[in-house]
From TrEMBL:
InterPro entries: AAA+_ATPase, AAA_N_dom, At3g28540-like_C, ATPase_AAA_core, Mitochondrial_chaperone_BCS1, P-loop_NTPase
Cofactor: Mg(2+)
Protein name (record): AAA+ ATPase domain-containing protein
Keywords from the named record: ATP-binding, Hydrolase, Magnesium, Nucleotide-binding
Organism superkingdom: Eukaryota
Catalytic reaction annotation: ATP + H2O = ADP + phosphate + H(+)
Length: 451
């Protein structure tokens, strides 16, 4: 109460100037000054004196982070002058947007304003350098506010070192990404926007999503995952692009499935997707970005979407071969060499194959016994023709069930398991019974589109 009275008396005795820092500019693009002010204010010790402060857990289990709540005031001092910030919110036409309002005495404005804003910029830059955490952004439905993205921490463990892929192919992709990172002056000299686009195609379970995560970790880029079912129309898709940041990977998964099963509420057109990847707008706002599209097959995609300039690199994700299998065995089982490897290699050479996801599930279920895991993989590979689907499903069920039974005591007929008919075992059967054989590889893995 005393603090409020003191503030009221001070306001009565002085004349103030107010400066608003909105979250978005007049073009609905992110106002970078807003994010800098946000970082700066949340680093001030005076945030503890705010009337209402939010508490969050930090990266460490015992770390508590304070964040300023809406419509709260936080004070700061700079060069002997006292200023205040108000965390506000605008509501125009049913659309909400956040802002910060700087309250400064007119007598101090000319002396400190420019230096104070530069101080905020410097401190926020230092904070950003210390906080190198990547973010995964997801688009939300329209009408929830001007901000169309919500984010979570991006902590995906996939890297180019641990994904199952041909070594030569990985090196080609890494080289291509490195050239892109260093290519700003080159792209500017050519008069082209500094962006790169990739098409990842292959059946489910072949590692496309993990590869995207590895790309983001390699580039040290945030990920913007666009759910096209939540995009109202072509203009809305452009608006999402406007609100992305530099140094980001923009992802659209299962593009072919969306185009084949568009709902009545989703009116994004093929033309809209083409303009999203290659238009005047993307040329203006897509600088320093990587775009990635995933599909199960290229056959159902309009060739105009895939032309050079819109999609630069095509990467095929086939079913597992022996090289990928060895990577999986090393990652999942900690085995680099094994007496059964020669048998596995021979089966692969005869044309048999599984997806990386299927092999990975067998290895996870039998991770306590690498030999047993490899035997289950061998048996699954040996089942061929039409019988392979049903036989593999049964094999996966048995392999998973046996592994779990050994972990809890080795007896499936005990009270815990109920002779194999308990809900736990039924759920295991249901889980591993979902795995299916995927189509075999159809084309080369790496294809750089040329103008």
């Amino acid at each position: 109460m005393v603090k409020k009275w003191r503030r009221t008396i001070s306001d009565f005795c002085h004349v103030y100037q107010f400066y608003k820092v909105p979250e978005f500019n007049e073009n609905l693009q992110e106002n970078h000054l807003y994010s800098k002010v946000y970082s700066y204010l949340n680093s001030l010790s005076s945030i503890e004196n705010s009337d209402f402060t939010n508490l969050f857990t930090g990266k460490k289990s015992n770390e508590i982070i304070l964040r300023l709540d809406r419509n709260q005031i936080i004070s700061d001092e700079f060069l002997g002058a006292r200023v205040c910030w108000i965390n506000g919110e605008d509501d125009k036409d049913g659309s909400r947007s956040r802002n910060f309002v700087l309250k400064i005495r007119k007598a101090d404005k000319r002396r400190i304003l420019s230096l104070y804003l530069q101080h905020i910029h410097t401190v926020s830059e230092e904070i950003e350098q210390r906080n190198t955490e990547l973010k995964l952004f997801m688009n939300i439905g329209i009408g929830i506010g001007s901000a169309r993205w919500r984010s979570v921490s991006f902590n995906h463990p996939s890297t180019f070192e641990n994904i199952a892929m041909e070594v030569d192919l990985k090196e080609k992709v890494k080289s291509d990404l490195e050239s892109f990172l260093k290519g700003k002056q080159y792209y500017n000299r050519l008069g082209r926007v500094w962006k790169r686009s990739y098409l990842l195609y292959g059946t489910s379970g072949t590692g496309k999503s993990s590869f995207v995560a590895a790309m983001a970790n390699f580039l040290d880029y945030d990920v913007y995952d666009i759910d096209l079912s939540k995009v109202v129309d072509d203009s809305d898709l452009k608006m999402l692009l406007l609100q992305t940041r530099r140094k980001s990977l923009i992802l659209i998964e299962d593009l072919d499935r969306f185009l084949a099963t568009k709902t009545a509420t989703a009116t994004v057109t093929v033309s809209g997707i083409m303009n999203f990847t290659d238009s005047i707008l993307s040329s203006c706002v897509a600088d320093e970005r990587v775009m990635v599209f995933t599909v199960t097959g290229k056959e159902l995609i309009d060739p105009a979407i895939l032309r050079p300039g819109r999609v630069d690199v095509h990467i095929h994700f086939p079913l597992c071969d022996f090289t990928a299998f060895k990577t999986l065995a090393s990652n999942y089982l900690g085995v680099k060499e094994h007496k059964l490897f020669s048998q596995v290699e021979g089966i692969f050479q005869n044309g048999a194959s599984l997806s990386a996801a299927e092999i990975g599930e067998l290895m996870i279920a039998n991770r306590n016994s690498p030999t047993r895991a490899l035997k289950y993989v061998i048996n699954a590979l040996q089942i061929d023709g039409d019988r392979r689907g049903n036989g593999r499903r049964l094999l996966l069920e048995n392999g998973s069930r046996r592994s779990m039974s050994e972990e809890v005591g080795g007896d499936m007929s005990g009270p815990l398991c109920g002779g194999g008919g308990s809900p736990v075992v039924k759920e295991v059967r249901k889980l591993y019974g979902l795995l299916r054989i995927k189509s075999s590889r159809k084309s080369e893995s790496y294809d750089v589109a040329r103008d």
